Amino acid sequence: MTDAPDQTHGFDRSTLQGMQGLRRLAQIPETAQHRAVQQGLEFGLEAAPSVQDRRISTFSRGAQPAFAGINTFLKAPYCEDVREIGRYDAAIIGVPFDMGTTYRSGCRFGPQAVRRISAVYDSYSLDLAVDLEEELALCDAGDVFVIPSNIEKTFDQIDRAVSHVVSQGVFPVIIGGDHSIGYPDVRAIAKHVDGNVGIIHFDRHIDIQERDMDERMHTTHWFHATNIPNVPPENLVQIGIGGWYGSRPGLSVAYERDTTVMTIGDVEKLGIDKATEIALEVAWKDAAAVFLSFDIDSVDGGIAPGTGSPEPGGLLPREALHALRTIAKEGICGMEVIEISPPYDTSDSTAQLGCRAIMDVLGVLVAEGRLGRRATHES
Ligand SMILES: [Mn+2]
């Protein structure tokens, strides 16, 4: 294949993302995959003689079959000894905590649901022309030891866990858990950032009241996060907010602190590209880093029903994923995907969307040379 314009069909096929992706993927060696197959054969023993494909082992030890095996996120290595986390570029951190929920609970099962459905995926993307297995040292750090009955002790545990990962230069991807963990997530990251941290927050709910039912529930995290000296509310942008419930007191706080709030109506009127552009401008204004917080309930409840506080009329998955990829292009200091409540999910569609959000963001970070091998080799 050449890079010359391809006019065979009366238009230049080489301008198609699909054709460009095929070319780029053909250039990425499948070294890590080959290594995984070898290890599978070693650990899982050679297959029965009747099996013709000799890459298959007796015990499933790799990605296949997708429905077999012990799942980490994308079957990435389990970093059981977290003192070794510095060997990786990025780490999945599960936070199975849902005592901050104010309606339906169940998102303590979010990390496991996302891990389980992640097994359906291979590591490459044609759209992004990346291969995460080949180009990113990703691990699954397992879950934080949350204290189920105590929000404040859990916050301290999360802060300590995320801070450990970030202090080793590893990009944190946090899977909740309810949204109350947004506060300790930001608290952990902000102390490692020299300068201000902006937050891009996708949600149907504003989540910035001081307390809810006397505690720091999943309606309060941005109040406390924007009290951190280097996390100014002027750099908090909230996309998709609206509907008929969430937090009346929080609306007053957002107004007083002057956060930037975009409703779904705003997104509709502006279009997702312009809305995302505004979000990036606000979050990055005089900031050194931007944190991405993706509440799965920002997506319409008909498509993402597995969540604690659903609200009709949210984003479509294609809009949400497009916005996340656009934000990732500019670089982020960490990401959380929260409020996935598997007991209310159907066909794993909500967990799968959460998984895709993470994969798309990681894919873009790798493709843009902000994380992983291209960052090391091409900068
Ligand atoms: Mn929400």
Automatic annotation (TrEMBL):
This is Agmatinase. Coiled coil: none annotated. It comes from Actinomycetospora cinnamomea. Gene3D superfamilies: Ureohydrolase domain. Belongs to the arginase family. PROSITE patterns: ARGINASE_2. GO terms for molecular function: agmatinase activity; metal ion binding. PANTHER family: ARGINASE/AGMATINASE, GUANIDINO ACID HYDROLASE, MITOCHONDRIAL. GO terms for biological process: putrescine biosynthetic process from arginine, via agmatine. Keywords: Hydrolase, Metal-binding.
